[in-house]
Amino acid sequence: MREIGQRLCIVKGVTIKRYIDMQKENKQCQSCQKSFTIDENDFGFYKKIGILPPKICPECRAQLRLYFSNIRFLYKRKCDNCKKETISMFNASKPYPVWCYECWWGDNLDGREYGVEYNPGESFFEQFGRLWNSVPKPAIIHTRSVNSKYLNYTADSKNCYMITESSNNENCINCHWIQLSKDLTDCAFTNKVELSYEVDDCYDSNNLKWSKGCHSCLDSYFLLDCRGCTSCLGCINLRGQKYSIFNKQYTKEEYDEKLKSLRLDTYSGIENFKKEFANFIKDKPRKFAEITNAVNSTGNYMVNVRNNKQCFHSYDAEDNAYSVHVWRGAKDCMDCNTVGRSAERVYNTLNTGIEVSNIICGSVCWNSQFMEYCLNCPSSQHCFGCVGIHNKKYCILNKQYTKEEYEELRAKIIEQMKTEGVYGDFFPKELSPFGYNESSVMNEFPLTKEEALKKGFKWEDTERGTYGQETIKWENFPDSIKDLPEDFNVNKEVFFCVLCNKNYRVIEDELSFYRKMNIPIPRSCPECRYTIRFNNRGPNKLWHRKCMKEGCDNEFETSYAPERPEIIYCERCYNQEVY
Ligand SMILES: [Zn+2]
Ligand SMILES: [Zn+2]
Ligand SMILES: [Zn+2]
Ligand SMILES: [Zn+2]
User: CB–CB of 371/357 below 8 Å?
Assistant: First the structure.
């Protein structure tokens, strides 16, 4: 509060105009040195929750947060409690105690056993760091899973395999960020989609393949930004069409014939069509942002939102800022990565959703309220600086207090943190348990090992996966899924990625899915497929640009960088083009 406090003194002493001037401020980021703006609404939010305004820019804040999360890199290691082999975000070389899912989420762990007394002679973060390193960490994070394997940061999955950051899904394989979906393989950021392959950013659709940005579409291939289309192939910006190929209308018979001739059951047929489609969309206009019903909002990939500022991937949410994955009822959240299911008033957190409110700086505090600087503390209230506490109240550094003692000590620590100028800052990067290259930050802010080390991040040198152990050769492999023998035993085979050379496996259910969908086994590894989808979404960043339609002067904030080749239109010009 120091900075705001000083401003308020000025208000009393000088004039109201001075107060207004002070409300919007350009600052220099103390990390990347670029300038950034803190506006009236930001200040209002900081004041409301009582924290100091940030010293680093929104991008550096996101980078620091993401460095604390490893969602997709899973290893095998032993549980430090029951000693059984388990799947874990932490590889065997990490020095921290790690407990398997059953032990960590069971009744075995009482985080209060690790509690320490706050020492006013030492910084909060130093004391928190020791606690963080001593309390067992959950190997993976998921809840209410049925017959599923390799899940992380998921809830309510049934018959799923390798699913991350998702909830309420069934029969899904290799997917990231999917909700309320069924029978998907290799999909991301989809909501209420069924029986689909390689789709991204799709809603309320069924039987789509290689499609992006579609709503309410059916039985189609290679669609981009279409609405309400059925049986279409290789189309962009279409509304309510049937039997269209490259945006041109055909009869059902012509459509069926053409589809058959493309041989999309073969690897070569798909590779050829991908090239043709990329060529076809080159000169077609794109909307400046993938947003639908976004009132007074800036960002990308938003549906049904209001007053969202610089939010990326958000739906059914309002009054949020500088956040990514803000969904299903999130309100008044700032600087959050993955916050939803009625989350309210949350600041600077990672993966903190499901009926949470009043959370400042933390991660995985599901179903918790009034938590500050807490990591992995589900179903708790009024805790400060805690780790691995379940279902508790009034704890500080994992030590139990009475309500009165808690309030007194909390106020004292906050005062001290404000004096040091750190109340509201995320945890210092030294406390991340991950290497830069295994944490979620790597996709969004890629760095080389040298760059990462120079900036003070750690690097994980443990090699994941194998090379050169493939049992199949692609040059001898059937081009069509139809030519794969019935008795092909996929469990025995090791494949190799044509992009990174790494070995990978295909599970039985996945092969059944490819056979059912009549599409070939992919020739790149799941991680390369994920990275391609991720990069196709564009950066979570905005540039101020002008509409490229001749004669239109409309301006907007867009994730298409000025040097991008796409033709970018404002909403009005785009709608004239597609409807
Ligand atoms: Zn910065
Ligand atoms: Zn265990
Ligand atoms: Zn690969
Ligand atoms: Zn325009």
Answer: no
Give dist(CA 383, CA 527) in Å, integer. Answer: 37
> Is the overall model pTM greater than 0.85, yes or no?
yes
Q: What is the DSSP letter of 144?
A: S
pLDDT at 74: 93
Instruction: Kindly give the distance from the C-alpha atom of residue 56 to the centroid of ligand 1, in angstroms, as a whole number.
Output: 5
- Those residues whose C-beta lies under 8 Å from the C-beta of residue 17, and which sit 6 or more positions away, are none
The DSSP string of 232-284 is: -EEEES-BS-BSEETTEE--HHHHHHHHHHHTTTBHHHHHHHHHHHHHHHTTS
465 in Cβ contact with 503 (< 8 Å): yes
Q: Which ligand is nearest to the CA of 526?
A: 3
Q: Count Cα atoms within 13 angstroms, Cβ side, for 400.
A: 9
Tokens of 427: 């945890």
User: Which ligand is located closest to the Cα atom of residue 108?
Assistant: 2
- The bound ligand whose nearest atom lies closest to the alpha carbon of 58 is 1
- Ligand 3 centre distance from Cα of residue 78 (Å): 27
Say if CB 152 and CB 115 are below 8 A apart. no
Q: Who wins on pLDDT, 17 or 506?
A: 506
Q: State the average pLDDT over residues 187-194.
A: 96
Tell me the one-letter amino acid at 429: K
Q: How far is the CA of 315 from the centre of ligand 1 (A)?
A: 27
Residue-wise pLDDT for 537-578, tens only, equals 999 999 999 999 999 999 999 999 999 999 999 999 999 988
Beta-bridge partners for 199 = 211
Cα gap 209→517, rounded to integer Å: 9
Residue partners of 189: CB distance under 8 A and separation at least 6: 176, 177, 178, 200, 201, 301, 313, 537
Asked if 106 and 145 touch (Cβ cutoff 8 Å), the reply is: no
CA–CA–CA angle 170, 171, 172 (5° rounding): 95
What ligand has the least distance to the C-alpha of 82? 2
Distance of CA 239 to the CA centre of its chain: 29
Measured in degrees and rounded to the nearest 5, phi and psi for residue 556 equal: -160, 170
Residue 70 has pLDDT above 60, yes or no: yes
Please report which ligand is nearest the Cα atom of 54.
1
Measure 36 CA to ligand 1 centroid, in angstroms. Answer: 8
**Distance in angstroms (rounded) separating the CA atoms of residues 531 and 515:** 24
For the stretch 143-186, pLDDT in tens is 889 999 999 999 899 999 999 999 999 999 999 999 999 999 99
